[in-house]
Structures are given as structure tokens and as C-alpha cells.
Amino acid sequence: MTPEARPHPHPHPHPHPNSLVPPPSQPLRVRLPGHPAPVPFPAAVPFPAPTARPVRPPASSGTPASSGAPAPSGTPDPYGTPAPEAASPAPEAPSVTPVPAAPAPGIPDVPALRLAPDRMRVGILVGAGAVTLLWGVQARLSARPDILFAGGAHLAGLLAGYGVLVLLLLMARVPAIEHGVGADRLARWHARGGRYALGLVGAHAALALCGYAVHARTDLVTASADLLAYGAIAAATAGTALFVAVGVTSARAVRRRVRHETWRAVHLGALLAAALGFAHQLVGPDLVGGLLTRWLWSMAHTTVAVLLVWYRIVVPVRAALRHDLRVVEVRDEGPGVVSVLVRGRGVAGLRAEPGQFFRWRFLRPGLRATALPFSLSAPVRDDTLRITVKELGDHTRRIRRLKPGTRVLASGPFGALTAHRRTRRKVLLLAGGVGITPLRALFETLPGGPGDVTLLYRASDATGLVLRAELEDIARERRAALHFLLGPSDGPYDPLAPRALRHLVPDLAAHDVYLCGPPAMARAATAALIRAGVPASRIHSEDFDHA
User: Fold this and answer.
1) In angstroms, how far is CA 435 from the centroid of its own chain?
2) Strand-by-strand arrangement of the 326-334 sheet
3) Which of 309, 276, 328, 49 shows the shortest CA–CA distance to 174?
4) CA-CA distance, 444 to 442, in Å (whole number)?
5) pLDDT per residue over 256-295, tens digit each?
6) Alpha helix (H) ranges present in 217-290?
7) Where would I find the H helices in 171-182?
8) Alpha carbons 219 and 249: distance in angstroms, whole number
9) Lateral strand order in the sheet of 481-486
10) CA-to-CA distance for 432 and 460, rounded, in angstroms?
């Protein structure tokens, strides 16, 4: 018998101690104090999460209906949630306009430009089509083998050069792209595109070599020696070697064994490889269409180079000088977890939204060489940014030893896990482990009335609950639902199985879902949510391992 099919072990109609819910007509009470040991999650959930209207449970559940309490005074409800009423099952929540972040004091309320993933994908494909058209206009095909080889080499070379430009643009940290597409999706596109670009570079080299060998009526070894005598081809060969090194060190099995600083140094070699490839194309036969073709190709490379320098060097340095960020406190949050408070001047000007992250460079030995991606674990207040970090390696262990006054360089904000993605009235926040950090900020700030926002927090035991007291306070103040799902990941019951999720959130399919947690948990939760009826387009997540 599967865990979902097992009979309920707690037939009595009482709330489970692992959850925070507002009982009907009573103040919210915390239900998880005083447990000396981890509380195992039951094989089924004995109550539904609170909603804006009473929800009648299934006849077999033996549990009472619960309703949301009125919103606390002073809490705006932009969706006009009606007062609780006796009623029937809640209908599907209507779609809503994405909610922009509130403008900071003194900052003009200008909507942030965001490039949607679909538009970015279409733009990349249109560019590839334009490059292919450029090749077709100037191609002189024939049945001769050497000309066929040469034509294929030219097409592969042009597409490889274009592919390298796209890869550099994806990692240029342009805000419109980062905020619209999302850092994790950009990183995945970059990794996948890198394989395509490297394949095209290899195809270009192989086809060109074969074409020259056929034309010169010689063997491949002699043809290789002859071609390397040309300076542009020697430069392109060196660039290809750099690209191969980047690809090898980026392979998952290799990257686990390579220090981050080493990987980063090798990865920077891609910039030199791109420059060598560009020089090779300018003097080679790939751009034979005349001055206009060379000018367009040069302008494309110049534009990407300017974006790289501007957003990866100029903007971070300017922000460091303007905001003068420094560590003001390192606070213990639990076993192996600390919060770092960073304060500066005019921090509101950074326009950081709940759910976003920065790349942090702490100017102290052992940390200054690496920019670490950490999400904000609280909204920006009083020119103060806060991150919450779990010790998972050498860098995160050193963060605990930061001293007040340490200078900080923060690049960002980045990421698209924000209120802008919201399309429904009701929202489920689903966190695992330290993935609670961006969702904690959203839990506090997402607009909504009673029953509109629910947080499920998965951890192996009670000691793994990060910022638990803050979450309970937010749930109490907002009359929001908060459920702690405790138990080992390899236990007999999966609290994130589709049926368990539907018990916790009966109208789950009417929700937007924000998901953040370890990669394995996020993949399993995404699959369960889809099986439970949530469309994939309404599951919003960012994998910060790729950020």
C-alpha cells in the first residue's frame, strides 16, 4: 500500500501540531512549541488550510472546516477579499495583474523593464535565422566536394560566432534580462548553449580542414600543418582550446572537483577565446559580403562587449562607491545558520525586491575573490540588507567570522522570483531548508487577505527550521497559513506528494506557487504540483545552484 493510500492514523478532529492555522473566530495560536524531538508528519493531513471562505472537508476526513480570520487593521487588501461567509466550495481564483514592488522613498516610480523568457527565446532564434540568411546570400554552392565542405564550414563558423555572442549576452547581467528571464534559467540556457557553440566550433574546424585537404589534394595531417601557418587560424585554434577547457571544467562531474576560483579563472578565458574568434572571422572567408556585413558583425560584438563591461564592472564599482556597504552584525539563527546585516547609504536606490538576490563579495581574506549569490531574507529597511546563510562549504563557514565594519561589494539585485510573476489571487509558498530565505521576504510582503497566502516549509526536523520565530510572527499578524512539514526525506511518508498537498491546500490548482529549495526537493515538488493540478506556467522557482 502506498503512503497516500494508508488509513489516517489520527482520526480525532484536532489540528495537527505541525501547523499554524487560525481557528474559526479565535486568535491565531502557535501549535509547534515544546516538541523536544522532531515531530513526524502524519500519513495524511487532518485539516484543510484556512481560506477566505469555509471549505467543507471530504466526508471521510473527519475534520472540521476552518475559515480565515479577518485581516488585521491597517493591512491593505488590494484584491478586495470579501468577508468570510457561509458558503460553498471556493471557486477558482480569478487572475490578477502582476504586482509591482512599491517604490522606495525618493525613488521615481518607473516600472522596471523585464524581457519575458519567450520573447528572449524568440529573439535568439530570429538572430540565428538572420545569420543563416546572411550566409545564404553570400554562399556559392557547387557539387564540388571542396566547395561543399567550405560552405558548411562557413555556416558553422558564423553560427558559432553568433552563439558565443549570445552566451556572453546571457551572462552580462543586463537587468532587463535578469529580472525578466531569471538568473537560473539564464544559467541553464548558457550551459546548454555552450554545448551547441562548442559543437559548432568543432564542426567549423573539421569541415574547413576537410575542405582544404580535398582542395589541396593532401592528407589531413599535412593540411593541418599548412593551415596553422596562417596567423588567424593559429589564433582561432588557441581560442578553440580555451573553449574546450571551459567546457571540460563546466561538466558537472569535473566542476564538483574543481575549486570555484579555478573554475572562474578558466571561465574568464572564454572572453579571450571570443576575441580570438572574432579576429579570425574578420580576416577569414566567413564575412565576405563586403563592408556592410563586416560593420554589422563588428557592431554586434562591440555592443555585447560594452554591456559586459558596463554591467559587470562599471555598475558594481559605481554602486560600491555610492552606497558604501558594510557589515553591521552577524547574528546566529540556529545550528550552522547565520544572518548578516549589511548597511549603507541610499540602499533604497538599489530597488531590491523581495525574492531577489545579490552577488556578495566580502572584502576579507578568503572571501574577497568570490562573489557569492545569496537571497535577501527580509525586505530592505533603514538602509539595511539582510541575508541568511547556512554553512555548506569553506566560503559559507568564513561568513560566520565576518566582523562589523567589513566592506561589502554587492552586485544586483538579480532574479525573477518576485511579486511580478504573480497571476492569481491565491499564492502558495513552498520552501525547503535554507530555501526559505527568499520566500520569507515574500511571505511578509505579498499583498493578500486571509487565506490568500500559504507557506509550506519542508525540513528534516525542527532544528532545520530557519527563521521559524519570524515566520510564526508573520503568520500571526497576517492571519496566513503556515505549515511545517517535518520528517526525513527517505521516510515512509512524503508530505509533498500530490494528495498530501491537496489536503493542505484544497484549492491548490487555483494558486500560483513560489518554490525554492534544494534541487532534488524542487524537482520532486514540481512534479507533484503538476500531478496535483497546478499548471507548470504557475510554478515559479529559481535554482540558486545555477545562479
Assistant:
1) 11
2) 326-334, 337-343, 384-390
3) 309
4) 5
5) 777 777 787 888 888 888 888 887 877 766 665 567 778 8
6) 220-228, 231-250, 252-255, 260-283
7) 175-181
8) 33
9) 19-20, 481-486, 453-459, 426-432, 511-516, 539-541
10) 9
Separation CA 516–CA 525 (nearest Å): 10
69 close to 450: Cβ distance less than 8 angstroms:
yes
**pLDDT > 70: percent of the chain:** 77
Compute the Cα dihedral for 210, 214, 218, 223 and give only its sign. Answer: negative
Cα–Cα distance for residue pair 417/119, rounded to 1 Å: 18
HEC assignment per residue over 391-414: CCCHHHHHHCCCCCCCEEEEEEEE
Is the peptide bond between 450 and the residue preceding it cis, with omega within 30 degrees of 0? no
In this structure, the number of other CB atoms found within 10 A of the CB of residue 538 comes to 20
Closest CA to 63 of 29, 96, 16: 16
The grid cell for 110 is: 518607473
CA Rg, the chain, in Å? 28
User: Which residues lie below 8 Å from residue 68, measured CB to CB, with a gap of 6+?
Assistant: 22, 50, 51, 52, 84, 449, 450, 451, 479
Tens digit of each residue's pLDDT (9 = 90 or more) over 466-503: 899 999 999 999 889 999 988 887 777 788 888 889 88
* Lookup: cell for 370: 568570490
Cα gap 332→52, rounded to integer Å = 37
